[in-house]
């Protein structure tokens, strides 16, 4: 049986990569900001840096990250919660399995046992 850590392995790896890239973006952005300020003979102020990097980060997320998140995570979530589109294939598959069980000796009892075990919400 998978542990919670293993069950969400892809999520943890993705989160680690995301945090690594976000921290790297902000750290190297600071070095570039300081270098640019020195080139213009100005003092690098943290407040100015936070505003600039916050704007740049949100602009990037708006154009890239949020679109991808909605397409992948949004559709995966809708499939998980059981949208009508996600049930079409399951109903057909269950009907076929029910037919095969009805053709075998003891199949009806096994079907009733499985329906009770998984609390079937499908009439078939």
N- to C-terminal distance: 31 Å
Can you give the mean pLDDT?
82
Helix content: over 70%
Largest sheet: none
Which parts are unreliable, with pLDDT below 50 for 5 consecutive residues or more?
none
Write down how many β-strands occur, each being a DSSP E stretch of 2 or more residues: 0
| Overall geometric form | rod-shaped
Describe the fold and architecture.
This protein is mainly alpha-helical. 81% of the residues lie in helices and 0% in strands. It is built from five helices and no strands. It is rod-shaped. The protein starts with a helix and ends in a 7-residue tail after the last helix. The model has no long low-confidence stretch (mean pLDDT 82).
Name its key features:
single chain, 124 residues, mainly alpha
Per-chain topology:
Elements: H1 4-7, H2 9-39, H3 46-80, H4 84-102, H5 107-117
Helix pairs in contact: 4-5
Summed up, what is this model?
The protein is 81% helix and 0% strand. The protein is an all-alpha fold and 124 residues long.
């Amino acid at each position: 049986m998978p542990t919670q850590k293993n069950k969400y392995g892809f999520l943890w790896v993705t989160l680690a990569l995301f945090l690594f890239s976000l921290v790297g973006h902000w750290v190297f952005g600071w070095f570039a900001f300081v270098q640019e300020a020195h080139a213009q003979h100005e003092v690098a102020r943290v407040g100015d840096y936070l505003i600039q990097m916050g704007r740049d980060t949100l602009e990037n997320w708006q154009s890239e990250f949020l679109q991808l998140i909605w397409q992948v995570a949004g559709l995966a979530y809708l499939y998980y919660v059981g949208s009508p589109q996600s049930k079409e294939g399951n109903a057909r598959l269950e009907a076929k399995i029910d037919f095969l069980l009805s053709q075998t000796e003891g199949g009806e009892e096994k079907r009733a046992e499985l329906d009770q075990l998984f609390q079937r919400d499908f009439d078939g």
